[in-house]
Amino acid sequence: xxxxxxxxxxxxxxxxxxxxxxxxxxxxxxxxxxxxxxxxxxxxxxxxxxxxxxxxxxxxxxxxxxxxxxxxxxxxxxxxxxxxxxxxxxxxxxxxxxxxxxxxxxxxxxxxxxxxxxxxxxxxxxxxxxxxxxxxxxxxxxxxxxxxxxxxxxxxxxxxxxxxxxxxxxxxxxxxxxxxxxxxxxxxxxxxxxxxxxxxxxxxxxxxxxxxxxxxxxxxxxxxxxxxxxxxxxxxxxxxxxxxxxxxxxxxxxxxxxxxxxxxxxxxxxxxxxxxxxxxxxxxxxxxxxxxxxxxxxxxxxxxxxxxxxxxxxxxx
Length: 317
Ligand code: GDD
Hints:
Blueprint: E1 2-6, H1 11-22, E2 26-31, E3 38-40, E4 43-49, H2 55-65, E5 69-72, H3 79-84, H4 86-107, E6 115-119, H5 146-165, E7 169-174, E8 177-178, H6 187-199, E9 206-209, E10 215-216, E11 219-220, H7 221-234, E12 240-243, E13 249-250, H8 251-261, E14 267-270, H9 288-293, H10 302-315
Parallel strand pairs: 1-2, 1-5, 2-4, 5-6, 6-7, 7-12, 8-11, 9-14
Antiparallel strand pairs: 3-4, 10-13
Helix pairs in contact: 1-7, 2-4, 4-5, 6-8, 6-10, 8-10
Protein name: GDP-mannose 4,6 dehydratase
Pfam families: GDP_Man_Dehyd (PF16363)
Organism: Psychrobacillus glaciei
């Protein structure tokens, strides 16, 4: 079996590649940069440069790799950045997905069994009333950021491609995922970076934060990628799946747990520049659909994920 992961060099891509390799799957990935083959713990990841800017180029790539599964991870995933670059976010998340889906329609004549997983986001749901929690796949989409709107468009497109072209595609809406190696700009690495600097005496004891009152549903990235594989194998075609823990944690609780795990005695300061124009207050998902259609069970406790993330932050240069 062979898999292609778009955007493989991102945070989730490397974890997914490791997981697929551990299942005996040959793994290829696309990246914007020219990159040599990457040796991972469970085997070699073959990387090809492809910006996903042209249906023909992607089609040629599919004809040469002949994947059984495609995991479409490439995109612009930073909510805050999506406010600063709305057009770039839509191009990266919507236009490139259209190029990929069109290439898949063409390629599926050769390989009608190929299955595709597009990665969306819980941000597609946007503004949810407390009476709508936990959020189900059928909850109305009212995205509140350009990022959320772009991913909602993808979820609608895949249903059209499935109906119009019989494309074997499944769309996943992951809620917040965290773990070692996540880049700055997301809440846990933003906190751990400062905590590590304070621990090392490289920074005064002030930890700058944004909105602490929001509630999020966090899952370890290592559980998330297992869910993606389960979905590509057993998910119902043309369907949308949440992937989440089903539990809500406030950002304040995350902050306090990280401060406890560190030896920093940090003083917390809320910083205006870290507050967003709109921030969704409560996000808790419902995961019964993925659990009933696949064998997915998340394994990591949040404290373990935070500890691993802090330790990884300590080892960063
Ligand atoms: N990034 C960041 N940095 N967020 C902070 C900070 C900070 O210093 N302080 C407080 N927050 C708050 C944010 O305002 C938000 O309410 C919450 O922490 C989580 O922020 P992020 O980690 O940036 O995640 P997100 O909820 O905006 O979006 C993430 O999750 C989505 C799924 O729901 C992203 O990973 C998206 O790509 C993903 O789709």
